[in-house]
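Lecture notes, part 5. Sequence design as translation. It can be helpful to think of inverse folding as translation between two languages: the language of shapes and the language of residues. The source text, in structure tokens, appears below.
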């Protein structure tokens, strides 16, 4: 009886040790996680939407950069990024898969209003991408 109990415990330990687990993590600006291109197009108007309006709506950008053109005009670019990644851990490896990715890039002219923007939405689970 003792041998059977010991064998059962060892078997259960082996099964538990060989099974994997999964974890989903998000990174970046959560405020753009549910944005659609239509909503971005309605909220952002070239030559009208200001930096302060974008800050009030989305908060601080993930990245910023100053761009200088060949004729020395400066513009500022703000990037908002979001990603949801699923990590699956198995006994002998870890697999990372991106479940969703969104990005919003805004360029502001010298007057502080949006001069250009791009939005991307990639969701491999649904097999769709918009831009």
């Amino acid at each position: 009886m003792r041998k059977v109990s010991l064998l059962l415990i060892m078997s259960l330990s082996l099964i538990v040790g060989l099974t994997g687990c999964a974890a989903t993590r998000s990174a970046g600006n959560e405020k753009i996680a549910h944005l659609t291109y239509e909503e971005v197009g309605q909220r952002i108007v070239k030559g009208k939407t200001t930096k302060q309006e974008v800050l009030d709506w989305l908060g601080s950008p993930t990245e910023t950069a100053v761009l200088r053109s060949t004729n020395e005009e400066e513009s500022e670019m703000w990037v908002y990024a979001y990603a949801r990644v699923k990590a699956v851990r198995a006994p002998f490896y870890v697999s990372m898969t991106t479940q969703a990715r969104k990005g919003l890039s805004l360029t502001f002219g010298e007057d502080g209003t949006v001069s250009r923007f791009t939005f991307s939405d990639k969701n491999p689970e649904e097999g769709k991408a918009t831009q």
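The translated text above is only one of many valid answers, since several sequences can fold into similar shapes. Residues 20-130 form one domain.
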